[in-house]
């Protein structure tokens, strides 16, 4: 039975936090910190298996087609021509201009996500709504202008930015039925977590090559009110038009999984993307029930609920490209479609900006190619027959789909198209790593990936890791304090000799009563667009252990008399509480900033200038 009409052909972590406390060190954004080890360590490179009644023959081989093949070819292919196809052409760099009143643009870029849904007791009881507001803008794409287009900020945690926000354009938000060559929405990702810029388009291509429905993808250069915001990755939206291209019927229920899984406490976060007025969790609930069956009944039950031939391939590709923030690695960033034709669930990828990278959420280096940190994949891997089917499918994908030379060629083509502009991007270029460094990391990773996965296949490891705890937070610490230091001391090893501070409040269950300590301030070592202030004190109960409270702000916010809204780590900011034991010389992050306000009484970025102020803050537990 034909279910998909797929385009096939070849045509990115973990919270990386480098501690800035008592010792001279810096912290960088998300992926760059975790890239650091890989960039130093890597060698230099110059710039279907189905058992269900309708699944087909068991052990079906995967047959990827040539990269140039497309279902949007036009009349000769028997498929109606898609007017949107040229605007996803990987060889084309879209030219997008956005015009809107400056104060309206500020409202877009500075808007914060409502994080209350991440706090107990609300957390886990509903989908994580984006809470961003659409505003009107005039949009010009490749010289063609549309007025009153809806524009809003987008992002969940890692990609949030006030400087270069990811964006959603909705052409019919304010003008009924307005489209751009058949396109209703455009997603423009800022590449904050993909500093090589190439990961998303490469990864979606690998999924499509394996026969998995995945978004089309290319690049756009974006100007906003005349200012050049650089390169964004343009990713096709997964909505009804997407479903119509890949499935016989597009009227089924489509859900986005964001920290969502098929187990108690995790299913309410599935967000309906179609049929939102007639939500139906029937197959999702059925899958949760099936996963509780004994081994001898598990696989037959799953075959009736999930297109298992498709799922084993999806799982294998997630592992191959290391989509550790996807379904198999983190119960996150995926879509499921309840297809009316097959009456089964089909899985599709999303949010692949951290692939082609060694990061994960295990707390240690995991087995290459194997991700089993969600309910369905973990149960299958712990089932002897399920494990065998996964390993067989991974072998097929590695042989038939993985194309190292093709991926390298695509990187060459992409960097030729965007390299000069990407090299100047404010979110990707820092004093420590360049655009070329990040691209070389991806090239090196691809070169060794086949051999790494082959080793896993030759000696399949046991999966020793439990399912993750619910992603819900609670305020664990509230701190109020004052500090006085001089600018340029952020790299000083001993904060107690570079300033003074006083803190009160509580750290976990430990009360702090006006404890005296040290302080330091200066530019962040890895990101000189940010200023950091660190307050240090003796731990209230652990003898000899020190506590550091580090808060970061944008350089242009560092102004005397200004109350600075401190952004938490889940809203594009970065602030941590860490402990340091001088005996063991070990530093541990114990809390992340949730929110806060810092008011500077003295602020000057001149070396040795006086810096002083007060702050109030709330913190959530972390264990990094």
Report on this structure.
The structure is a single chain. With 624 residues, this protein is of the alpha+beta class. It is built from twelve helices and 20 strands. The protein has an eight-stranded antiparallel β-barrel. It has a seven-stranded mixed barrel with strand order 1-2-3-4-5-7-6. Strands 9-8-10-11 form a four-stranded antiparallel β-sheet. Helix 10 packs across helix 12 and helix 11 runs antiparallel to helix 12. The relative contact order is 0.14.
Number of strands: 20
Query: What is the number of helices?
Result: 12
Mean pLDDT: 85
Helix content: 10-25%
The shape, in one word, is: globular
What is the gyration radius calculated from CA atoms? Answer: 25 Å
- From the N-terminal CA to the C-terminal CA, the straight-line distance is 48 Å
Strand order of the largest sheet: 12-13-14-15-16-18-19-20
- Class of secondary structure makeup: alpha+beta
- Give the amount of beta strand, in percent: 25-35%
Note the main sheet: 8 strands, antiparallel, barrel
List low-confidence stretches: 1-77
Q: What is shown here, in short?
A:
The protein has 12 helices and 20 strands.
Helix-strand blueprint:
Blueprint: H1 30-41, E1 93-99, H2 102-110, E2 135-141, E3 144-154, E4 166-170, E5 185-189, H3 199-209, E6 217-224, E7 227-235, H4 240-246, E8 253-257, E9 271-272, H5 282-290, H6 295-303, H7 308-320, H8 327-330, E10 334-339, E11 344-349, H9 375-381, H10 384-400, H11 404-422, H12 435-458, E12 477-486, E13 499-507, E14 510-523, E15 530-538, E16 546-554, E17 563-567, E18 575-581, E19 586-602, E20 610-621
Parallel strand pairs: 1-6
Antiparallel strand pairs: 1-2, 2-3, 3-4, 4-5, 5-7, 6-7, 8-9, 8-10, 10-11, 12-13, 12-20, 13-14, 14-15, 15-16, 16-18, 17-19, 18-19, 19-20
């Amino acid at each position: 039975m034909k279910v998909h009409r797929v385009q096939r052909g070849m045509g990115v972590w973990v919270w990386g936090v480098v501690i800035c406390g008592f010792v001279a060190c810096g912290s960088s954004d998300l992926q760059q910190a975790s890239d650091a080890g890989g960039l130093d360590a890597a060698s230099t490179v110059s710039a279907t298996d189905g058992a269900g009644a309708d699944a087909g023959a068991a052990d079906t081989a995967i047959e990827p087609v040539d990269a140039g093949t497309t279902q949007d070819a036009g009349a000769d292919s028997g498929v109606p021509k898609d007017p949107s196809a040229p605007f996803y052409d990987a060889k084309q760099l879209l030219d997008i201009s956005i015009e809107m009143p400056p104060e309206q643009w500020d409202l877009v870029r500075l808007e914060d996500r409502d994080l209350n849904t991440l706090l107990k007791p609300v957390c886990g009881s509903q989908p994580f709504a984006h809470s961003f507001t659409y505003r009107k803008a005039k949009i010009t794409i490749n010289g063609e202008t549309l007025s009153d287009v809806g524009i809003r900020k987008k992002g969940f945690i890692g990609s949030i930015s006030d400087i270069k926000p990811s964006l959603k354009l909705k052409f019919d938000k304010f003008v009924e039925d307005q489209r751009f060559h058949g396109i209703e929405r455009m997603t423009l990702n800022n590449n904050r977590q993909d500093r090589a810029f190439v990961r998303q388009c490469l990864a979606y291509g690998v999924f499509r090559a394996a026969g998995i429905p995945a978004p089309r993808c290319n690049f756009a250069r974006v100007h906003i009110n005349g200012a050049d915001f650089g390169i964004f990755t343009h990713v096709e939206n997964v909505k009804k038009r997407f479903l119509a291209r890949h499935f016989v019927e597009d009227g089924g229920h489509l859900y986005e999984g964001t920290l969502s899984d098929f187990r108690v406490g995790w299913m309410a976060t599935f967000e309906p993307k179609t049929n939102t007025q007639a939500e139906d969790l029937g197959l999702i609930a059925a899958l949760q029930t099936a996963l509780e069956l004994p081994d001898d009944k598990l696989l037959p039950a799953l075959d009736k609920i999930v297109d298992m031939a498709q799922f084993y391939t999806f799982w294998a590709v997630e592992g191959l490209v290391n989509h550790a923030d996807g379904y198999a690695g983190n119960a996150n960033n995926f879509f499921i479609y309840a297809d009316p034709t097959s009456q089964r669930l089909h899985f599709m990828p999303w949010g692949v900006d951290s692939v082609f990278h060694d990061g994960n959420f295990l707390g240690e280096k995991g087995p290459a190619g194997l991700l089993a940190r969600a309910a369905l994949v973990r149960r299958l891997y712990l089932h002897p027959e399920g494990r065998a089917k996964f390993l067989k499918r991974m072998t097929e994908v590695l042989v038939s789909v993985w194309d190292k030379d093709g991926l390298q060629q695509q990187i060459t083509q992409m960097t030729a198209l965007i390299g000069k502009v990407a090299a100047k991007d404010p979110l990707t270029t820092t004093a420590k790593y360049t655009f070329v460094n990040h691209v070389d990391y991806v090239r090196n990773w691809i070169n060794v990936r086949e051999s790494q996965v082959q080793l896993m296949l030759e000696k399949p490891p046991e999966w020793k890791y439990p399912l993750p705890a619910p992603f819900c937070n609670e305020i664990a610490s509230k701190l109020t304090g004052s500090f006085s230091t001089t600018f340029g001391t952020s790299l000083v090893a001993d904060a107690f000799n570079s300033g003074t501070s006083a803190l009160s409040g509580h750290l976990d269950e430990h009360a702090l009563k006006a404890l005296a300590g040290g302080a330091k301030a200066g530019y962040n070592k890895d990101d000189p667009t940010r200023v950091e202030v660190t307050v240090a004190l003796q731990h209230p109960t652990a003898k000899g252990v020190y506590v550091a409270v580090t808060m970061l702000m944008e350089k242009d916010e560092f102004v005397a008399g200004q109350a600075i809204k401190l952004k938490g780590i889940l809203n594009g900011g970065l602030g941590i509480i860490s402990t340091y034991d001088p005996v063991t010389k070990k530093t541990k992050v114990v809390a992340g900033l949730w929110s806060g306000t810092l008011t500077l009484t003295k602020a000057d970025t001149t070396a040795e200038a006086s810096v002083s102020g007060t702050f109030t803050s709330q913190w959530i537990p972390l264990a990094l």
